Amino acid sequence: MGLKNNVLDSFALTGKVALITGCNTGLGQAIAVGLAEAGCDIIGVNRSEPEQTAQQVSALGRKFVSIRAELGSVAVIPGIISQAVAACGKIDILVNNAGIIRRTDALDFTEQDWDDVMNVNIKTLFFMSQAVAREFIRQGEGGKIINIASLLSYQGGIRVPSYTASKSGVLGVTRLLANEWAAKGINVNAIAPGYMATNNTDQLRSDEQRHQEILGRIPAGRWGEPDDMKGPAVFLASRASDYINGYTIAVDGGWLAR
Ligand code: NAP
C-alpha cells in the first residue's frame, strides 16, 4: 500500500495548471485560492488586475499568471490560450467562472441586456471550452472543465431573463460537451452555486425583504460564502472525479432540495 493508493492523493493538484476566468473577486477568487491550496498553479483571466488573488496564490507558494481580457467577445480567446501556454507550458484545468447578471422586468428588458449576458455567460464559455479542449487534445493527457452554472439552470427566476437563458444553457452545454469529450479523457462538469454573498447578489442582499425571503428558504439557514466553492471545485478538478461526466453539482445549502 503505497501513498498512490490513498484516496486523499487523488484530490491533489500538484503540478497542475488551472485557467480561471473572472478570479479577481467572489467565487472565482475562492476557486483560484482553493485550487492553489491543492497544489495547482493558476492562470487568471480578468479585465482588471487581480492583485488580491495573485497575492493569495503566491503566498501559498504557487505561480500566478495574470492575463487581461474582456470576455464579452470571443475574439480574445486565441490570445488567451497562446499567452497561457507560453507562461505555463500547458493547461490541465479550465474554470469558466466569469459571469454577469442584469435585473429588469421581462416587459422592459433590452436587447443590450440580453446580448451582454449571453455573450459572457454562454457564448464565451462555449468557445473557451472549445479552445482549451483543443489544447487538451494536443497535449494528449485529457483535462478537466468546470463551468459555473446557477440555480437558474434549474429554475426560472424572476426579472433576469438573459441570466436564466444563459445559465440554463450552461447546464445543457455541459452535458453536450461531456458526451463528446468523455472518451477523450476530458471531464466536463458544472457547479451550480446557490445564493452566495458576492457582488453578483449585492442588489438582492441590499433589499431587506428579498434578503430575508431568500434566507428563510435556505435549509442550511445561511447564505453561501465564496469558500463553500473550494471543496467541490478541487474535487471536479482532480482525479477523484474521473468518472463524473456532464453533471452539475448544486452548492446551495439545500435550496434545490426543497
Ligand atoms: P462577481 O463577484 O460579480 O464576479 C464575476 C466575475 O466575472 C468577476 O471576476 C468579473 O470581473 C468577471 N467578469 C464579468 N464580466 C466579465 C467580462 N466581460 N470579461 C472578463 N471578466 C468578466 O460574482 P460571483 O458571484 O463571484 O460570480 C461568479 C460566477 O458565479 C458567475 O458566473 C455567476 O453567474 C455565478 N453565480 C453566482 C451566484 C451568487 O449567488 N453569487 C449564484 C449562482 C451563480 P469584474 O470584477 O471585472 O467585473
Automatic annotation (TrEMBL):
MF terms (GO), sorted A to Z: 2-dehydro-3-deoxy-D-gluconate 5-dehydrogenase activity; 2-deoxy-D-gluconate 3-dehydrogenase activity; NAD binding
Keyword entries, A-Z: NAD, Oxidoreductase
E.C. number(s) listed in UniProt: 1.1.1.127
UniProt-listed PROSITE patterns: ADH_SHORT
Keyword Coiled coil: no
TM spans (from-to): none
Lineage: superkingdom: Bacteria
UniProt cross-references to Pfam families, sorted A to Z: adh_short_C2
Reactions catalysed, as given in the entry: 2-dehydro-3-deoxy-D-gluconate + NAD(+) = 3-deoxy-D-glycero-2,5-hexodiulosonate + NADH + H(+)
UniProt enzyme class: oxidoreductase
Family from the record: Belongs to the short-chain dehydrogenases/reductases (SDR) family.
NCBIfam families, sorted: kduD (TIGR01832), PRK08993.1 (NF006528)
Entry protein name: 2-dehydro-3-deoxy-D-gluconate 5-dehydrogenase
